[in-house]
Design a protein that fits this description.
Elements (H helix, E strand, L loop, with lengths): L13 H18 L7 H11 L7 H9 L6 H11 L3 H6 L20 H12 L2 H18 L4
Helix pairs in contact: 2-3
């Protein structure tokens, strides 16, 4: 009678979950042209984009080697940065996987210099923010004029 109480599918243990997450994170990093072998770079790129408490290189290494999974808030930011669905990054599933090295929404990704620029813009007072916006609009208009 004990067989009736056993699950039909064994539950995924936390080690498998962490290792699977690590594989998906590495794939997403490769697809976005980042090295999956550099916890230092992962931590730096993450911290540039994340508004909360920065992560350490050690935490990034744990994500990359399958020893830990980031919190949901951090995972969502990583997914947005790398242009993959957060659900796919956390849980996998072929229906949501990026295909052929393509990311789901490449337009959601910014280069680190762009993120730094946006962060700098946010630190300006309102008057200087407006000046910066007008200057950028002027540059865009000039760039799109026929030569």
């Amino acid at each position: 009678m004990t067989a009736l109480h056993e699950p039909l599918v064994p539950p995924m243990n936390s080690t498998n979950e962490r290792e699977s997450f690590s594989e998906r994170l590495q794939q997403a990093l490769k697809n976005a042209h980042y090295s999956p072998d550099s916890p230092t770079r992962l931590a730096r790129e993450f911290n540039i984009r994340f508004e909360g408490r920065p992560i350490t290189v050690h935490a990034a290494r744990k994500w990359l080697v399958g020893e830990a999974i980031p919190t949901q808030e951090k995972l969502r930011m990583i997914a947005q940065w790398l242009g993959v669905p957060a659900d796919w990054l956390r849980f996998g599933g072929s229906e949501n996987a990026p295909a052929n090295g393509e990311t789901v929404d490449a337009s959601a990704r910014f280069e680190s210099a762009d993120v730094k620029l946006i962060a700098d813009l946010q630190r300006l007072d309102e008057h200087h923010k407006q000046l910066a916006r007008e200057f950028i609009r002027m540059l865009v208009r000039m760039n799109h004029q026929p030569k």
